[in-house]
Every structure is written in C-alpha cells, then in structure tokens.
Amino acid sequence: MEAAMDLMRRISPNQGETALSALLAILPSHSSELLSQVDQPLQVLMDAKCEKEFILCEYNRDADSYRSPWSNEYYPPLEDGSLPSAEMRKLECEANDVFAIYRDQYYEGGISSVYMWEDDGQGFAACFLIKKDGSKSGDGRRGYLHEGTWDAIHVIEVGAEEDGKAHYCLTSTVMLSLTTEGKPSGTFNLAGSIRRQMNCDLAVADGHICNMGKMIEEMEGKLRNSLDQVYFGKTREMVCTLRPPPEGIQMKLPE
User: Fold this and answer.
1) In this predicted model, what pLDDT tens digit does every residue of 170-217 receive, in sequence order?
2) Are 196 and 158 spatial neighbours (Cβ–Cβ below 8 Å)?
3) Across residues 122-140, what is the average pLDDT?
4) DSSP calls for 12-69
C-alpha cells in the first residue's frame, strides 16, 4: 500500500485514473483505502431538477449515486441515501452560494460544489470543490490553451467549539493539466499536483463559513505560488537551458 501511494504521488494527474484502475486490479483488498486517499481529476454531473452541474467526489457518494448540493437529491436516484441534518444542510446551502461568488471572482467561471457532514465527535467536516475547464471549448476566455483543467479540493475538519473558538484543519489539493498547440511553439504539455495542510484556531463569532473561506483563500494563494515556482519555474529554466532564447527576448510560458 505504501508503494502504491508513493507511485500515485508521482503519476501525472491526466494519467491518474488509468494508474488507479491498474492498482485496484492488482490490490483489490486495498480498494477502499486507495479510493479514499487518492485524489482523482474531478468529474461533473447534471442536477436535472435544478438544471445545474455539480461535482462528484467521495464525500457526496453513497453506493453508486451522488448527492447534488443544489437539490439535495441523489443521481441516479437512491431511496435510502444519507443526508445531512437540517442545520448542516442550511449551512451547506449558504456555503454553496458564497463559494459560487468566490469562484466567479477568482476563476472567472467554472463549477463549484460544497458538501458538509457531521463527524463522529461534536464537530463537522466540509469539502469545497472547484473545477475550471480552461480550454478553448470550455471556460477559457483568453484562448491560449488547447486543453487545460484546474481541479481544487479543500477538505476542512472543524472541531467542537471551546471558549468561543474552534480548531480548523484544512487539507488542500490542486491538480493542474494543460496543453498548448501552435505553430511557433508546437505542442507543450504540463501536468502536476500539489497538496498542503493548514491548522488554525479561530473565533467562531464571525461564523464558520467566514473562517473557512479565509483559510481557503490564503491556501489557494500559496498553492498557486508553489505551482508557479515548482512547475512553471523549473520548466522555464529547462527550456531556456536547452534552447536559449535570442538575446533580448524573455522566455514566457502560457498563462
């Protein structure tokens, strides 16, 4: 299992689904552990009742069905699917509305979903998801990418309130994949993923959604900087070393 997880950390996100299927065939006894620990590119389904797309993940799945955060119904229909409590559902609806605004401001489109559930203790957990298709045929507005996807997964565990404060543990994963095709540069492929964790003790006076939103905003800024340094920075260094640009011309990678 340790070797399998080590392998998946080194697999490109656009090949992760194929690699995971192979590992599940080799290690059927560890299937549940692999599915819960390995992050895969996000998939999307349409909520026929609300006519809105939602993102699929392990946190809204029950059997082979997925719960929509918009209608709170399962697709395909599931009679006895687990549902959040009334209080948790109210917080989930509010979080989806707020996160949709965040998505539009930072991503200029895309799809977002938020799921919440009670944990075994007195706290709860939440999963914030964003999928942005940056290709020419998707939500891309600048037209630089032939294909491009950005998948962000933020899982937050919120502890029980004590003395007006709560402990928040945020685990974030970003998966990036892009392809450009053009006569000047030819075909260029870049894919990678990065995961980080953050822990904070914050006052609950401003509300859980406000606290979680601030943590996600800060974490996404750090992840974008890390991706720029690790992937784009190293790629730029390698390309400029192998094929130095003419003097006076600065090498730039697609945004």
Assistant:
1) 999 998 888 777 766 677 777 778 889 999 999 999 899 999 999 999
2) no
3) 83
4) -GGGHHHHHHHHHHH-GGGHHHHHHHS----EEEEETTTTEEEEE-GGGEETTEEE-T
Please write down the long-range contacts of 36-44, taking CB distance under 8 Å and 24 or more positions apart: 37/5, 38/5, 38/8, 39/153, 39/173, 39/175, 39/193, 39/195, 40/16, 41/13, 41/14, 41/16, 41/17, 41/149, 41/151, 41/175, 41/177, 42/129, 42/131, 42/151, 42/153, 44/111, 44/131
According to DSSP, residue 146 is labeled S
pLDDT of 191: 78
- Are 232 and 251 spatial neighbours (Cβ–Cβ below 8 Å)? no
What are the φ and ψ backbone dihedral angles of 47, each rounded to 5 degrees? -85, 105
List phi, psi (to 5°) of 128. Answer: -110, 125
Handedness of CA 100, 102, 107, 108 (dihedral sign): positive
**pLDDT for the residue numbered 24:** 84
Peptide bond into 76 cis (omega under 30): yes
Nearest-Å Rg of the Cα atoms of the chain is: 20
The string of pLDDT tens digits covering residues 218-235 is 999 999 888 888 777 777
φ, ψ dihedrals at 124, nearest 5°? -150, 175
Distance CA 248, CA 25 (A): 53
Mean pLDDT of 67-81: 95
